Amino acid sequence: MKLIKTIAEMQQFSKSASHHRQKIGVVPTMGYLHEGHMSLIDQAHKLADIVIVTIFVNPTQFGPNEDLAKYPRDFDRDWSLCEKRGVDAVFAPEPEEMYCSDRSTWVSEEKMSQGLCGQSRPTHFRGVTTVVAKLFNATLPDIAIFGQKDAQQAMVIKRMVRDLNLPVEVVIAPIVREADGLAMSSRNKYLSADDRTRALVISASLREAEAGIKTDGRKALCGLAESIAVKITAGGGRVDYIEVLDADNLESVSESTRCLLIAIAAYFGVTRLIDNALINLD
Ligand code: AMP
């Protein structure tokens, strides 16, 4: 497995692979890898000949009062997990390699990024789209795999790729959960034992909502977000948002909605967790 630290070397590696007609799959991550990330790597292996994992804690997607400095990092562990999973190259640039000090260009999506996490993290998605575009330009992939765990991020990236005609196929892989239902996340490490137990109310509420919709159809949507909020608050969480939206466009649910996205962000202790469910109405 190759460790690549510079954009020039990364592009050279990918150009050479493409020259040999190898399909390149990239899995962008911020490191501190878990089985959720591993599932994206497995998916990349199925769809591509060469798998590149990028590990970069991207400063521009963190707000001034967010956890950039405290974001968990363990490169040696990440390296051995990637090696065991048969990754071909890890691209792990330093921030100075990715960002010139006098940079003045952003990539920003202006519709899908406005609600949900965009409300409480107003500059977050501009950082995400900018870094993903830059990572695509460095790794030159045919396919990029992202997780449904970050549902809004996946939609924003798909929209960016479409609107900018980027020659990358974006594939979204399902959420990987712990055995008890908690969605895997690098930030779970910050949960105290009690908060980790309390946080199970998030995935439990999503399961209950799904069961309710299966039984009662659209009738179950009435007051659904409010009732999830009550459960999460009663369970010791602090709700950032709970929204039930049309999964195709992140707009309000209408008669034409075929698939729902129930999206939740809530704090347990100081840790902000996100989770979601996609529910087919047909
Ligand atoms: P992160 O390192 O948290 O920025 O995540 C990197 C990629 O892994 C993103 O595409 C995430 O959506 C995806 N991811 C994170 N957690 C999970 C999970 N539990 N299941 C599936 N994908 C995930």
Summarize the structure.
This protein folds into two domains: 2-173, 3-Layer(aba) Sandwich (Rossmann fold), CATH 3.40.50.620; 186-276, Pantoate-beta-alanine ligase, C-terminal domain (Pantoate--beta-alanine Ligase, Chain: A,domain 2). The protein has ten helices and nine strands. It has helices at 7-19, 35-47, 75-84, 95-98, 117-120, 124-139, 151-163, 193-198, 200-216, 224-234; strands at residues 2-4, 24-29, 50-55, 89-91, 143-147, 169-173, 238-246, 259-268, 271-280.
Q: In words, what does this structure look like?
A:
- The chain is of the alpha/beta class and 282 residues long.
- It folds into two domains: 172 residues, Rossmann fold (3-Layer(aba) Sandwich); 91 residues, Pantoate--beta-alanine Ligase, Chain: A,domain 2 (2-Layer Sandwich), CATH 3.30.1300.10.
- The protein has ten helices and nine strands.
- The strands form two sheets. It has a six-stranded parallel beta sheet with strand order 1-4-3-2-5-6, sandwiched between helices.
- α2 links the parallel β2 and β3.
- α9 runs antiparallel to α10.
- Adenosine monophosphate binds next to α2 and β5.
Features:
282 residues; Pantoate--beta-alanine Ligase, Chain: A,domain 2; 38% helix; Rossmann fold; three-stranded antiparallel sheet; alpha/beta; six-stranded parallel sheet; 2 domains; binds adenosine monophosphate
